[in-house]
């Protein structure tokens, strides 16, 4: 296997005086692949993503991930800061000190990549939830990120927009050779990824074939429902 694009090795993280959240957590995502991260509420998924971006410092362990990293939040209203679509995508490029034509080219290319070039002048407030998530993704594309981290990007979407987003992201990643780690608790999304990790109490307890993991988790859910019915 070629060098992984994301490598996490025995990561430990704990908020002061609390039980550990990440406990020797290790995972690798191969370059150019789309992997998902599942786990129950509180299992440490968001904490893991934040240590990957450098927003949180782990107590021990290693993270290897090629910058610049794109990060997409659960709630796009926490991420989109400018009044219009084009301005928001351009805002992420400020640090790169590009010329005006370069910025314009990057913004137009990124919006075309998420099929929203026609909304370039649209105010952010006039977008649907799914469109907002695609704008957040366009921001990462414009910065030429090779790795995308997405923390439950479909959590606030209706089922149709949810499936549209996951399909579009899958196609975009493949076209551009981007690597992604996508957090979800919706098992139907597993149909679109190359592999999946199951996190339990801050540790990867299962990984690999997403369809196999989906079947196993669905059986587990059915058993839980049966037990409740008894
Ligand atoms: N800012 C914080 N301060 C203290 N504890 C936190 C903080 N954020 C999350 N936690 C705790 O860390 C654990 C893991 O949370 P989180 O990573 O958000 O889980 P998940 O995303 O899988 O639902 C939970 O027990 C949560 O209560
Ligand atoms: Mg979370």
Mean pLDDT: 94
Classification by helices and strands: alpha/beta
Strand content: 15-25%
> What is the assigned CATH homologous superfamily of the largest domain?
P-loop containing nucleotide triphosphate hydrolases
Characterize the overall form.
Answer: globular
The CATH class designation of the largest domain is: Alpha Beta
- What's the story with the biggest beta sheet? 6 strands, mixed
Count of DSSP helices? 6
- CATH topology (level 3) name of the largest domain: Rossmann fold
The ordered H/E elements are: EEEHEEHHHEHEEEH
Q: Numbering strands along the chain, what is their spatial order in the largest sheet? A: 5-6-7-3-8-9
Uncertain segments of ≥5 residues (pLDDT<50)? none
Q: Ligands bound here? A: adenosine-5'-diphosphate, magnesium ion
Helix content: 25-40%
- Assign the CATH architecture of the largest domain: 3-Layer(aba) Sandwich
From the structure provided, what is the oligomeric state, counting identical versus distinct chains? single chain
The overall number of domains is: 2
């Amino acid at each position: 296997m070629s060098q992984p694009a994301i490598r996490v090795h025995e990561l430990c993280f704990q908020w002061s005086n609390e039980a550990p959240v990440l406990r020797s957590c290790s995972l690798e995502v191969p370059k150019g692949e789309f992997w998902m991260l599942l786990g129950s509420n509180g299992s440490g998924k968001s904490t893991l993503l934040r240590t990957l971006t450098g927003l949180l410092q782990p107590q021990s362990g290693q993270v290897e991930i090629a910058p610049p990293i794109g990060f997409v939040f659960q709630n796009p209203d926490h991420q989109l800061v400018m009044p219009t679509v084009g301005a928001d995508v351009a805002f992420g490029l400020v640090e790169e000190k590009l010329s005006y034509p370069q910025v314009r080219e990057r913004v137009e290319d990124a919006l075309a990549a998420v099929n929203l070039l026609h909304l370039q002048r649209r105010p952010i407030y006039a977008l649907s939830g799914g469109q907002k998530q695609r704008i957040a993704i366009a921001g990462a594309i414009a910065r030429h990120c090779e790795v995308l981290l997405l923390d439950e990007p479909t959590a606030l979407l209706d089922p149709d927009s949810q499936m549209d987003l996951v399909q579009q992201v899958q196609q975009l990643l493949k076209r551009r050779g981007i690597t992604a780690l996508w957090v979800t608790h919706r098992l139907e999304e597993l149909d679109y990824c190359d592999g999946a990790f199951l996190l339990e109490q801050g540790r990867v307890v299962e990984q690999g074939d997403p369809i196999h993991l989906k079947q196993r988790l669905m059986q587990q859910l059915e058993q839980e429902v049966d037990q409740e019915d008894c």
